[in-house]
Amino acid sequence: MTIAEELSSIFRNRALIGGEWVAARSGATYAVLNPATGAVISEVPDMSEQDATEAVVAAKAAGKAWAAFSAKQRARVLRDWHDLILANQEELALLITSEQGKPLEEARAEIAYGAAYVEWYAEEAKRINGEVIPPPAGDRRIIVIKQPIGVVSAITPWNFPMAMITRKVAPALAAGCTIVVKPAEDTPLVALALAELACQAGVIPGAINVVTASRGHEVGHVLTTHPDVRKVSFTGSTQVGRILLRQSADTIKKVSLELGGNAPFVVFDDADLDAAVSGAIACKFRNGGQACISANRIYVQSGIHDTFAARLSSAVRELKVGAGDQAGVVLGPMINSKAVEKIESHVMDACNGGAKVLVGGKRHDLGGNFYDPTVLVNVDPSMLLNREETFGPVAPIISFETEQQVVELANDTEYGLAAYFYTKDHSRAWRVAEELESGMVGINTGLISNEMAPFGGIKQSGLGREGSSYGIEDYLEVKYICVGGI
């Protein structure tokens, strides 16, 4: 039985425009591959600028009708969408594992995580409050209201193909906006399944549109330059984020960007070592290290460096590598061969510079897109894997002496998305948390993401926030109304 047959109630392999499941105008398709096996899962439309333009037109056409829904009505639709997602959690998880590669247990967790954003914004839809401001004169009244910004475009990554969509689509719909989603070319199938469930939940035709394409730059150009798109939301690399920001400038769009990270993970000598090792495993090796908030640079104070490195290496040796649908697997494949090549280049650069491999350091015996979970020591801050996101299961350990030194090392990057540190000293906890140049900080934890907290970075890690009550603001315009002659 094929996955399309097994998941027939939610499986879609055509794009969604204006409430219709359609092929590309050109008839072109491209193959979606299973990264664990290389097998073709399905073919999806390979859409062009023309198709993307039609999606924007459809979104605009649906805009007034969707915005006319009361906040309570939109909340009800979103709540139904949330319930349908959870009712199909196993099916969606299987789809994620098939096209993205992560283990089923992690895929199930992503479904729950992504659904939580839909639930949160179903509730926030009813809390888009305005304000009455004391006027400067007795014959006037000042009122502030919030209205949907209009058509939104969302360009999402492959590493969390479900959660990154709901984190953008849910607040847009809750605010009364309509949206065009361009999912990553490697992982379009879960996006299409989510759109099918949104239609079943009662989202009106054209309120959500999904455009699939292997040539992301063509569709992305439309979604950032079309005058009817009023907001762009992108999650991906800093390099691409710069391009999209430039493209959005001529039409003065509101832009939110969740870009690359280079997260420091600091272990002070007073830390709970067991907790720090567990946190490092969770923070570094979840999704095979393919997360923007993964620990990328692990700094350990010199007095405990060797002990920590030994304990981390022992834990890493126990991580089972394999296809995500196999029992007990903790690390699935990398998304594609380019990802493996980047990991290899970073490890080779480190070893050539004097780093020592304690665990791994090579492609896994399974071959293909699999790479051994790796621990390195004798790492220098100048090495590639400390200056760039490795985006793979490689843990480089760097020794440091003082608090001031490690804060300077942690901040010595153009990125500022997430940072983590372990300490039992409460004074140090406050000092370091405030000194780290990062939009999010985890203290004594390697897991920080949830729908109730504002997710986002500073410096070249992005603009804006997603999740929490802050996350809906970018989808709203603030309007001031002055009433005179009272």
Structural topology:
Elements: H1 3-6, E1 15-17, E2 20-22, E3 29-33, E4 40-45, H2 49-68, H3 71-87, H4 89-100, H5 104-124, E5 131-133, E6 141-148, E7 151-155, H6 163-175, E8 178-182, H7 189-201, E9 208-210, H8 216-225, E10 229-235, H9 238-249, E11 254-258, E12 263-267, H10 273-285, E13 295-301, H11 305-317, H12 337-352, E14 356-359, E15 374-377, H13 384-387, E16 394-400, H14 403-411, E17 418-422, H15 426-435, E18 440-443, E19 462-463, E20 476-483
Parallel strand pairs: 7-8, 7-10, 8-9, 10-11, 12-13, 12-17, 13-16, 15-16, 17-18
Antiparallel strand pairs: 1-2, 3-4, 5-6, 6-20, 11-19, 14-15
What does this structure look like?
- The chain has two domains: 3-259 and 467-481, 3-Layer(aba) Sandwich (Aldehyde Dehydrogenase, Chain A, domain 1); 263-438, Aldehyde Dehydrogenase, Chain A, domain 2 (3-Layer(aba) Sandwich).
- Helices cover 38% and strands 20% of the residues.
- It is built from 15 helices and 20 strands.
- Strand 17 (418-422), helix 15 and strand 18 (440-443) form a beta-alpha-beta unit.
- The longest helix is centred in the first third of the chain and has 21 residues, at 104-124.
- It is globular, with a radius of gyration of 23 Å.
Total number of strands:
20
Tell me the major beta sheet: 7 strands, mixed
Strand order of the largest sheet: 14-15-16-13-12-17-18
Query: Counting H and I runs of at least 4 residues, what is the number of helices?
Result: 15
Structural class given helices, strands, pairing?
alpha/beta
Helix content: 25-40%
Poorly predicted ranges (pLDDT <50, ≥5 residues)?
A: none
Our Rg estimate from Cα atoms comes to 23 Å
- CATH superfamily (homologous) name of the largest domain: Aldehyde Dehydrogenase, Chain A, domain 1
Oligomer: single chain
Tally of distinct domains: 2
CATH topology of the largest domain: Aldehyde Dehydrogenase, Chain A, domain 1
CATH class of the largest domain: Alpha Beta
- What is the percentage of strand-forming residues? 15-25%
Molecular shape: globular
Q: Separation of termini?
A: 72 Å
Please give the CATH architecture of the largest domain: 3-Layer(aba) Sandwich
The overall average pLDDT, rounded, is 97
